[in-house]
Amino acid sequence: MNEHTKSAAMSNRHKLGLIAGCLAAALLANAPALAAAPVSAPTPASPSSHAVNNELQAMTVPALLAAALDAHKRGHLVAPASDNTIGYYVATLHKDPRNRIARDALRELFPYAVTAVEQTITQGDYDEANREIELLAKADPTNYSLTLLRAKLGTRRGGRAGQHVVTLQATGKCWVAIANSGGHVIDSRVLSSGESWTYRYAQSLRLTLGNADGVEVSADGKAVAVNAPPHAKVAHLELYASR
């Protein structure tokens, strides 16, 4: 690890420590409620997502907040599935959508969670990376970082020579059609806000976007400009596959 990398890592740890301190202060303000709630986190060895969801649903909001802070102190930002900071805060908002502690925490921690997912992808644990990406999508479904993460994951998973990946991330309702270079439609679907679609291709493609303002496109992890003609919502893109 070079000096620049060491410095960046130390800076991130320092910032995460400051965030943890702020969260702890916020929780202390709610100490009476927390005192009456259990704070232990569920830690089954190999939980299914269904089992994890049931565990979280059974916890109270104060217990979820306390478990989130505890997981954060132990460095469990997005993993394991049964015991991670982001998951506890997402579950908190599911029970209490206006909970300010959870909302502020997710906003502050999201960039660090993205970095953690990138590391999981780099390590080649693709199934776990996909789980972590879907977890972040519950926290902030329209965040453009999700588009880049999905594209990076798709590229690494299907990264054979001559293969490419296009990822479409909907920020609004959008009809999408994928056609080959001859104009024959291969697939189409309607994406709702927050949904994404990753498509692998080896030959050039034509995309038709029914609502150009409602979708973000990336190809092989790089953002693609979506420009509709003036006074029109429909945009047409061509993605060229390298030979």
- What is the average of the pLDDT values? 80
Indicate the percent of residues in helices.
40-55%
Class by SSE composition: alpha+beta
The radius of gyration over CA amounts to 21 Å
Uncertain regions spanning at least 5 consecutive residues = 31-48
Output the number of helix runs: 8
DSSP strand count: 8
The sequence of SSEs as H and E is HHHHHHHHEEEEEEEE
- The strands making up the biggest β-sheet line up spatially as 4-1-6-7
Q: How widely separated are the two ends?
A: 37 Å
Number of domains: 2
- Overall geometry comes to elongated
Sheet having the most strands: 4 strands, antiparallel
DSSP strand (E) fraction? 15-25%
Describe the structure.
- The chain is an alpha+beta fold and about 240 residues long.
- It folds into 2 domains: about 5-140, no CATH class; about 160-240, Sandwich (Immunoglobulin-like).
- Helix content is about 45%, strand content about 20%.
- The strands form 2 sheets. The protein has a 4-stranded antiparallel beta sheet with strand order 4-1-6-7, covered by helices on one side. Strands 3-2-5-8 form a 4-stranded antiparallel beta sheet, with no helix packed on it.
- Strand 2 and strand 3 form a beta hairpin.
- Helix 1 runs antiparallel to helix 6 (about 100-120), helix 6 (about 100-120) packs antiparallel against helix 7 and helix 7 (about 125-140) runs antiparallel to helix 8.
- The longest helix is centred in the first third of the chain and has 26 residues, at about 5-30.
- The two termini are about 35 Å apart.
